Amino acid sequence: xxxxxxxxxxxxxxxxxxxxxxxxxxxxxxxxxxxxxxxxxxxxxxxxxxxxxxxxxxxxxxxxxxxxxxxxxxxxxxxxxxxxxxxxxxxxxxxxxxxxxxxxxxxxxxxxxxxxxxxxxxxxxxxxxxxxxxxxxxxxxxxxxxxxxxxxxxxxxxxxxxxxxxxxxxxxxxxxxxxxxxxxxxxxxxxxxxxxxxxxxxxxxxxxxxxxxxxxxxxxxxxxxxxxxxxxxxxxxxxxxxxxxxxxxxxxxxxxxxxxxxxxxxxxxxxxxxxxxxxxxxxxxxxxxxxxxxxxxxxxxxxxxxxxxxxxxxxxxxxxxxxxxxxxxxxxxxxxxxxxxxxxxxxxxxxxxxxxxxxxxxxxxxxxxxxxxxxxxxxxxxxxxxxxxxxxxxxxxxxxxxxxxxxxxxxxxxxxxxxxxxxxxxxxxxxxxxxxxxxxxxxxxxxxxxxxxxxxxxxxxxxxxxxxxxxxxxxxxxxxxxxxxxxxxxxxxxxxxxxxxxxxxxxxxxxxxxxxxxxxxxxxxxxxxxxxxxxxxxxxxxxxxxxxxxxxxxxxxxxxxxxxxxxxxxxxxxxxxxxxxxxxxxxxxxxxxxxxxxxxxxxxxxxxxxxxxxxxxxxxxxxxxxxxxxxxxxxxxxxxxxxxxxxxxxxxxxxxxxxxxxxxxxxxxxxxxxxxxxxxxxxxxxxxxxxxxxxxx
Length: 697
Fold this sequence. Notes:
The chain is α/β, with parallel strands linked by helices.
């Protein structure tokens, strides 16, 4: 095995990787987003188990380096094998360049990466085959490039983990996997959000210097190659260590069991976290989570709805008066945490229009988002369904013909559309909404003269709202009510927007600037809407898709899921503050109740204004599934784990009672089994219904 040799580059690269990993942990430990304190034992665990994980992960990722070093020789260039190998490489290059390979199926930049890699390999092999006198020099160049690539990847991974932590407060997770799939959009976002060129130049300079050091120290390694027998012995040893690493790494991951989430995240290895997230884009509920008898699960669920559900959520929603078929405009706002609004404690006067509109609306002051990504918010308001384990239904293959808000409204004669300022391909929105009967209006629908400003995410909110006004004016001519779901984009990193609109220049790229511009654009939309013929017959629903960040000391920090939401309609909706606990999935069923709609429902969401509504809310990550009820947060997690926290309000004297949002989550030593059973009933039944296609139209 190459690691056994002191002059081996593997030894130096391993040392460099471990040093970088230690430095990264220290930086993340003291990062402002790491809102926690750590005991001496936790610090010891973070660095000891973390270092072991890093060591064994490096053994795995060094497989290509070891293969390269094992095949260093001169004999492979001898006739005829040299020409055979070169011919094979040329054919492979032609295939990946012009054929439809597996790399094309994954999309993004992977095909280009594959072509570049094989091109370099083919070029250098050909040069060493046809220029034997220059072979030593060419091999040295290739050796330098190989070491440089590993050094650069180690540095780049550390920098990427830092920025990911800066955004989400965790190591790589499901979001990072999505970001890899949507490479072009995400790279564009990074380019617009950070000083990428100076950063990459700095990384490159550091990588070159470290590579020079390693190459100089390991120069003897290139002067004499091991015999075939020695290489065979070393390869067998490496293979053995490789398989040991595959067993040890998951074992160490199971030691990430602290009640402090930050301890677990700092102890973990980001590369392994990325791998596990990539492999588990769907989690079989029955396999990974605690279960109860299916009949008991539906029976328990029935108590919430006062119906005998009998392996279904299908029930009749009846009104005591005639239906009101007003136009509906649902606006889901990107990353709008509750505490951006003044009523919730916002200190920077970032949302004057929303603050004003809220006082004229039915305002939900105790509303929780189901998740921490846009697809979760879209899933919640469209399917009115508790968050599913792993990937959102929006991103799944089986995401079409679902029982949705659009489906209900289509049965009532509504025109149904989804409007998005970006490319609806992103996050699978086009496939999901198109597959559920929505017409889609996205950036591809815009004429050049309709775009005044755009960034990597799409056109600015003002342009989107102007387009929406045009769409609704055309719909109004059809003499049929319309339902338009609009998704905003401007309140998202890189937080760029047209200059001269607010008091923060676009080039500042500040989050608060993004919030202010989002509020400004929304005001412009309503100013335009007021002048339209359909305005007085329209209900506007405004709700955040998720909060600006989701990190915290516990798995599910409540304040990072609290979102604003309101229903506004002049002379129809009575302004009031509704303080009862509710979920994002309840917003549209509540609206349907206000419109007196009669329909058969499969929704888990409820009309929270009904007298028999029992307050509860759902919050989740991609693996931790939570239920808030009776001042207790119950969390069920993979490996059939269950935790419960008592929720102790931390009063803020600057806020009215209706807007108190801070809680201490105190781990309960003994589980409330009734609440555990109820939590399981929600998530187990929704998983069962999805799996058995019982939530289809």
